[in-house]
Amino acid sequence: MTKQDHIAYWLNMSRRDWETVDVLYTGGRFLHALFFVHLALEKLLKAHWVKDNLEDIPPAIHNLVQIYDQTELDLSTEETDVLQGMNQYNITGRYQDYKDKAYQRVTQHYANEKIQECKVLRDTLLRKLQ
To answer: Where do the domains of the chain lie?
Structure first.
């Protein structure tokens, strides 16, 4: 596979995850929707990682800020704050004890705000990849 093939792979996977966000949100699965927002952003960042590094296989990590730090992206403080805030949904989406605590605070309104915030960041990451 070429470098472009690897980037296309991560973009396609990110697009699929973003489509899943809508399905989960519409179905009232707000916490799970935020987990998939995290996945979509992670895969976009991994596409950037591939673009900006000699290797084609990004590190097997899920921390959005750590992946970002290994790219040549130059995001604003507000944008990196969004990445940092979304890291919690990587853990929350995977472990039941975290899910149980988070279900109470992740309301439809809260999830919608986070999704809209991340949609702006997603658009920025897509634009910067071109």
So the answer is: 3-129
d(CA 128, CA 1): 22
* Element at 7 (helix H, strand E): helix 3-26
How many other C-beta atoms lie within 10 A of the C-beta of residue 127?
8
Query: Which amino acid, 109?
Result: H
86 in Cβ contact with 41 (< 8 Å) = yes
> Confidence band (pLDDT; 50, 70, 90) for 106?
very high
The third-level CATH classification (topology) of the domain covering 3-129 is Four Helix Bundle (Hemerythrin (Met), subunit A) (1.20.120)
pTM score, whole prediction: 0.94
Phi first, then psi, for residue 106 (nearest 5°) are: -90, 80
Do the beta carbons of residue 14 and residue 108 sit within 8 Å? no
